[in-house]
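Regression check, biotin case 271:
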Amino acid sequence: MTLAPSDASLRTHAESLWVALSAQLPGLSIEVLPTVDSTNTRLMQQAREGLVGPTVLVAETQTAGRGRMGKAWHTTTHRALTFSLGLPLAPADWSGLSLVVGLSLARSLHPELRLKWPNDLWWQQRKVGGILVETANIAQRPERYVVIGVGLNLDTPSQQAWPNDEAQTMAPQAPAGLCEVLGPEVAVTRGDVLSKVLPGLVADVMRFECEGFGPFAQAFAERDALAGLSVSLSDGQQGVACGLDAHGGLQVQTAQGMMAVTSSTVSVRPC
Ligand code: BTN
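Current build output:
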């Protein structure tokens, strides 16, 4: 493995990204902090205080990173890219947004990255990254403020980095780092990875706002890590994952018939 140089270039990448993205997102602010509790928590707080401009907040370290379903997201023992994109959005239908985010990241990063519904990035059945999407009301406006939090492991996390986390309870293998995915010849820095993923993410989220999940469904299916696998649902049921329905729900063939699972009701793992 090539040791990546220091990430001092993160700010330079952030400046270039600001120039590149400001036309699409007028008023965009991109901020890089050495440490913050959680980039999602910070942007959600700001939104509740009425700061609802398009914002990218990148943290070199998070002290209280949050994952889905109330779990912690630990990145203190290995290098990771942790950032949140916040912006006002008013899609006709919100379902599928987190799937689009995962797909966008996977497409920007590597052809072999797969998506474990609803929004984990997997490489060879090992979790490389996760997404936490949250929204807040915006007073007297039709949009909601959406905060899209992205955590990508750059280095391979040690097992101690993942106590009580999905990597141990929901994934069959130890988590992976992008350094493994991209190979020894690629030096992986936070700045490089942010520059790889952010322009595509902004474009895909804006397309989702206008067109919904439909245009992304086929590409998701091509990267669907669960398709055809036996899965266990957190409500105790078992079945075979059969792709997604039109709203991005996971279809599972169970003994009782085909059911559509939504991420707000149950979690799912291969068995
Ligand atoms: C998951 O897999 O459960 C989702 C993990 C999301 C982690 C990212 S890191 C940046 C942003 N800030 C947070 O506190 N969480 C998200």
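Comparison notes: The CA atoms of residues 28 and 54 lie 5 Å apart. Helices lie at 10-21, 39-48, 97-109, 166-169, 178-182, 190-211, 217-223. No diff flagged against the previous build.
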